[in-house]
Amino acid sequence: MEEISLIERIQDLTDLELALLLSLVAGEHCIIQTEEEALDSLEEELELIAANVFGLSHATIHCTSSTTLDELSNGILVNEDFRWGSESAKDGDEGDLNQQTSSHARPSVLSTANRQGDRGIASIVILKNLDLADEHVQIQVLELLRTKRIFTRTAFYSAPKTFLVVAVKSSSGLPLVNHLNDHIFISHYHGIDDGFANLEEGTGWFEDDRASTASVVHRFVISESVKSSEAPILSSKDIRALTALKDRVVVAAEVNSYLHSIISFLRLHRAVGGGITPRATRHLNLLVKCLAPLHKLDFVTPSLVTLAVRKIYPHRIEITSPENERSMQYGSDLSAVATMLDGMTAEQVVEEVLVAVEAPL
User: Fold this and answer.
1) Host H or E run for residue 73
2) CA separation (Å) from 118 to 68, 113, 158, 251, 342?
3) What is the model's pLDDT at position 108?
4) Which of 100, 138, 337, 361 is nearest to 232 (CA)?
């Protein structure tokens, strides 16, 4: 009955909330894209989702070409008082907003690496315009994803058990650095027409330095009324329950064959110049298992595979240049190839492959 209640709560989530939930269940990270003019609204919506839906702390960094490694390292830290996602909760319910508002309640169980100067890495780190940051900054983010640790000039900090990095960027922006891009679990496009449910409802949240347009790091201030508010929609206990359900999902041989046929067709597509990596395959296998419990299933269906492919590959696929298109090795006309590739997008490649590969009955 508890599982059914959990699934019913999930049915009411928005697409944006589901994207973050899937990343948390998988223990991976995501890219959220929107139009340039909606970036500020998307940022605020994600901050509200972190608090209202998951009951987790967050830190937001506005990346630019001048963002430094020190700004990144210090910007993702928040006061321990607000780290609801910390593993310091002895009862294991590290995400409950109404149960953990102060780290001083159980100081003995806090890791020294996590509380240098009463600060720690936020549970959800929002990196706005990460694609504009210098390559060295993006490499540091990659190191954070890989090791779940970050160093400052005076200490090092470990990420909490419930940890998510969200790269927020314009849909017309630049791609991330290759290796970082490959480490990102899923990408999700959120259009202006999709709305911002939490932002439109209105809350008591505000940012202490919102007035400073030059500020790189945005953190939040929490009033007593918010601290004592009702529990989040999904706690860290719920996320762990979904992770356990994910581990019990089975993939039939026919569905597994279908999944790998899609990968093969993607690799062989004329417009694809790269991005179909082994890590992407691992992420695809992981995502289909994460999706199944959300649909009240303990097995993977072909429709879940197609849904997962649309989230795993669009940010990874590199469209080849006409000169490097493989048929050029056999005498194809360059202008004809250029015409064929003109306007081709990663989303189009994915859709063409899904049409070409026959799903099992």
Assistant:
1) helix 69-75
2) 23, 10, 13, 45, 54
3) 34
4) 100
